[in-house]
Amino acid sequence: MGKSRNARRGRAAAETVVEDVDGGRAELIPDRDRPRAWSLLIDGAPQSHVDLDDPAHLSFEYQRRLGHVIDLAAPAGRPVRAVHLGGGALTLARYLAATRPRSTQQVVERDAALVQLVRRELPLDPAARIRVRSADARAGLAKVPDGWADLIVADVFSGARTPAHLTSGEFLDDVRRALAPGGLYAANLADGPPLAHLRGQIATAADRFAELALVADPAVLRGKRFGNAVLVACDHPLPVAELTRRAASDPQPARVEHGRALADFTGGAAPVTDAAAVDSPAPPPSVFR
C-alpha cells in the first residue's frame, strides 16, 4: 500500500492492497491463478472479483447468475442501457461492456473512496461507456430519466446487509419508472433460515411486476444455509427455460423458481413498505470463513 501501480507491475507477484474506504477496510487480493485478477473484500466480506485480462470471466456464483440475466436481457451482443445500483469493483459493468460493446452504463456507488481505489488499482477500459456516480443508490436512481434503462441491477450491501430503503415497494416504483418498456430488473439478495427477508422481497416484487423468477442454490431455497439469491422481475415473459439451463450448468448449480412454485415459496409474506422496511439480515460469521 502506498506504492504506485507501476511499481507493483514490476514485481514477480502482486501484493494485497489494503486501504480504508467509507464503508470499512477494503482489501484487493490478487488471484494466484489469474495474473491480473483481484478479489475485493470489505471488512473481510467478499464483494467482487475482477479479471482485467478477461472481464467476461465471472468468478463469484451470484455474479455468474447475474451474468446470465445480462446475457438474456436482449439478443446476444446488442447494446443496452444499464443502471447498476452498487458498484463494488465494477465487475458486472465490465462484464456487460465486454459482452455488449457500445452499451451505455450508469453505476451508482455510495462509497466515493472505494470508487477512487477501484479506478486507481483496477482501471476501466477507456472505451467502455461506463459513468460512475458517487451517491446513495436510491438517490442516484431518482436521477435516471423516465424509461431510460433496459436493465437495472441492484447489488447493494452495507456491512454485508442491504439497506432497508432499497427493499420496499416504493423503491421498486422508482425502478419501474426508470425502466424502458420491456426492461428487466435483477437484484442480488442474501438471506438464511427462516428466509423471511427473501420471501418478503419476492412478495414486494410480485406486487409491482407481472413476471418473476428466482435463481438460487437449492440449499438456500430449502433454508439449510445462508446465501445469495438473484431475483429477476419484468412485465413480459421471462426466458425461464434458458435461464434454468444456464443456472443448472454452473460450477455451483442453481435452481430457478418461477410461476406458481415461486408464489407458493413466499408463504403468504406481505409486500414491504418504506414504513416497515428493515435491513436484510446479517450473515453468520461462518459464511466468510
Automatic annotation (TrEMBL):
Residues annotated as transmembrane: none
GO biological process: polyamine biosynthetic process
InterPro entries xrefs: SAM-dependent_MTases_sf (IPR029063)
Record key words, sorted: Polyamine biosynthesis
Keyword set includes Magnesium: no
CDD domains (alphabetical): AdoMet_MTases
PANTHER family: THERMOSPERMINE SYNTHASE ACAULIS5
Protein's UniProt name: Spermine synthase
